[in-house]
Amino acid sequence: VQTYSKHLALRSTCIYGGVDMKAQTAELREGREIVVATPGRLLDHVEQKSVHFNQVEVLVLDEADRMLDMGFIPDIKRILNTIPGSRQTLLFSATFPPELLKLAREYTRDPVEVATASGLKTVDSIDQCWMKVSEDEHSLALIRLIEQSDLEDVFLVFCDRREDVDRLMRRLERMPFSIKALHG
Length: 184
Hints:
By secondary structure, this protein is mainly alpha-helical. The protein has helices at residues 2-5, 21-30, 39-47, 64-69, 73-82, 98-107, 138-147, 162-172; strands spanning 12-15, 34-37, 58-61, 88-91. Helix content is 38%, strand content 9%. The strands form 2 sheets. The protein has a two-stranded parallel ribbon. It is globular and about 60 Å long. It starts with a helix and ends in a 12-residue tail after the last helix.
């Protein structure tokens, strides 16, 4: 958000738990056009009256399926019930389990659904597989898979956290593979 808005007269802030609320409260009281937040900490600020939703025009719910998995849907519903109904709501999710579809239908007006072609998760040219390995064997198992693959095979590996990506990158860069790491 900061990169995209650096030449615009928009102020933004990031609100999340695990840090002192005072600096966040100060920024919110100065006024911000864009607030990026985790649901729990945003509700903390609502209770402290350091954030008000009366002027919200657009609400973006990103990674909605993950928020459902993590138990944030009750918090999301509290936020949705507080924000003016005239807002535009954008909901992004890799999957749409029934509970998330119900939430989307209940809290949106005239929704437009954008999905992969025919609702397919992958194309025919992609092989998916999984194997269960202990956490300390992840990188070794991946190395063995790559070693046994064809030269033209391409692997896309997802990790839970930035630290996991960096750790795996350090391990694999010692191998004779062409490898790149990507994270936000």
